[in-house]
Amino acid sequence: MLSHINASATLDPIRAFAADRAPVAKPAGDENRRVGQRIADTLALLAAKLAPQRRLVRAGEVIYQAGGRFDNLYILNSGFFKITTLSPDGREQVVGLKFRGDWLGFDGIAGGAYSCDAVAMDTGEVWAIPYEALLAACSGHRDLLTVLHEAMSREIAHDRDSLMSVCTLPADARVAEFLRHWADSLAKRGLRTDQIALRMTRAEIGNYLGMTLETVSRALSRLARDKVIGFSSKGRRDVHIPDVAALTAFVQRCLAPAPTLQ
Amino acid sequence: MLSHINASATLDPIRAFAADRAPVAKPAGDENRRVGQRIADTLALLAAKLAPQRRLVRAGEVIYQAGGRFDNLYILNSGFFKITTLSPDGREQVVGLKFRGDWLGFDGIAGGAYSCDAVAMDTGEVWAIPYEALLAACSGHRDLLTVLHEAMSREIAHDRDSLMSVCTLPADARVAEFLRHWADSLAKRGLRTDQIALRMTRAEIGNYLGMTLETVSRALSRLARDKVIGFSSKGRRDVHIPDVAALTAFVQRCLAPAPTLQ
DNA sequence: CGGGCGTTTGAATCAAATCAATTGGAGTGG
DNA sequence: CCACTCCAATTGATTTGATTCAAACGCCCG
């Protein structure tokens, strides 16, 4: 699985590891604030221009299903969703996770019907935005169109990152990268990242990452053993992340072929 | 890897196999023609409204690179491209393959810079479409905007299918599915699908599918042994596909846990 | 013709899946 | 409150599919 790694000469896992205990770097903090602002601005803009229909959801509720007629895009104001697809032969796949500020339903534009299911994993609020109304509003407000296109662009770029992760990272690194991305998403939204509630079963995480639930469990145990994560006293569903950078370092350690021992 | 398969009771691999030798079904043929028409219409529309700058490329030419300033979207009039990303730590990943009518560069919209490389794998013609000019033209022509959004939507949906394949299919099935999709893409563009020139090395295919080149080679050998594909007399780069449906059947056979022997 | 790259194939190894048993919590009802 | 069930999670033992290592082959091109 690691055959395609171009062990570039510039790679220096030691340096990366040295950065372990450093607090979140300045530029990253700025970037996070910027993204948080962008999300707030986007929501405000949509609220102002389109008065979207707000819907409160509880864990388990479905806001659209594959095959359903496409009329609305949705944007998350709060909560957390999973996006799943089902192949004709019955394989199921979690293909995306969505947080505040993320859009849902882009896949429906092309065919006039959604091709995925969107399921709430927690209580939250989604705004329904009729696609036709959005287009109409876009013609008068260039910034609305920009916001829409940027959201689609970001989704495309992110999907590629996901593919890269499943194709190039070993199981342990994939789990670490998954947690890192989650923490990062929370940070960008101004939420605390030291204590995160996954609200997904090991099976769901494993499905998303292309591995079995047992492998997820083992990876988490190893991360905990290495003190990269911790489990809250009550239950092992919530994960404590003392330092996000340590997750990145862990990924690099998984990739390093020889630990340069001695 | 197959743990998440919901072996639905409606699944019937025998039926699927029985369809092996059937010619391409009517509805699929219609669908292909429809898609071919859509691509031709899109290209005609863009040519008429935007007079895009046409550029001839030869195999190996790069039309944009990660980090490069985003100004243009591109649409392929002919030829065939690969899209690759490079992670900060040096992992490389083929994240997409593009054919006539496909757009390139959507990933650049959000950040103002491309996040991937686009490399020609064959001679062809790409049209450069300045993004700002496109947006300007869209305000007057709703159909242009529709075409753009549908292309982005299709890309998102396709990326999800890719993720599903790498996450849920064993290596052999992944290669079969890859060939099936390739043949399908050619069929939609009105090209012959019985004889296809991959123009990718085993290493590139393997990278795209998340496996090593040796595994790709073995999978192709097995497909040939099972008469699902054939190799042209000269060289093993070109693949002969007598019947696309047989590839789908092969995928299903890979998934069937027990071949219901006896 | 010979060198270099891409491909095939075999053998050994390894990471992850599978199988199996156990533990731990959350919720229910006596 | 405790016993009970149910489901999620953990952990160990074993198997297996894919990688890795290695060797040989074929083809293109100077």
How are the elements arranged and paired?
Two copies of one chain form a homodimer.
Chain A: H1 13-18, H2 26-50, E1 53-57, E2 62-64, E3 72-78, E4 81-86, E5 92-98, E6 103-104, H3 108-111, E7 117-120, E8 124-130, H4 131-140, H5 142-168, H6 171-188, E9 195-197, H7 202-209, H8 213-225, E10 230-231, E11 238-240, H9 244-255
Antiparallel strand pairs in A: 1-8, 2-7, 3-6, 3-8, 4-5, 4-7, 9-11, 10-11
Helix pairs in contact in A: 4-5, 6-8, 6-9, 7-8
The first copy, chain A, binds a DNA duplex (30 and 30 nucleotides) through residues 1-3, 170-171, 201-203, 211-218, 220-221, 234-237.
Description:
Chain A has 262 residues and is an alpha+beta fold. Chain A has nine helices and eleven strands. In chain A, the strands form three sheets. In chain A, strands 1-8-3-6 form a four-stranded antiparallel β-sheet. In chain A, α6 (171-188) crosses α8 (213-225), α6 runs antiparallel to α9 (244-255) and α7 (202-209) crosses α8. Chain A is globular, with a radius of gyration of 20 Å. The first copy, chain A, binds a DNA duplex (30 and 30 nucleotides) through residues 1-3, 170-171, 201-203, 211-218, 220-221, 234-237.
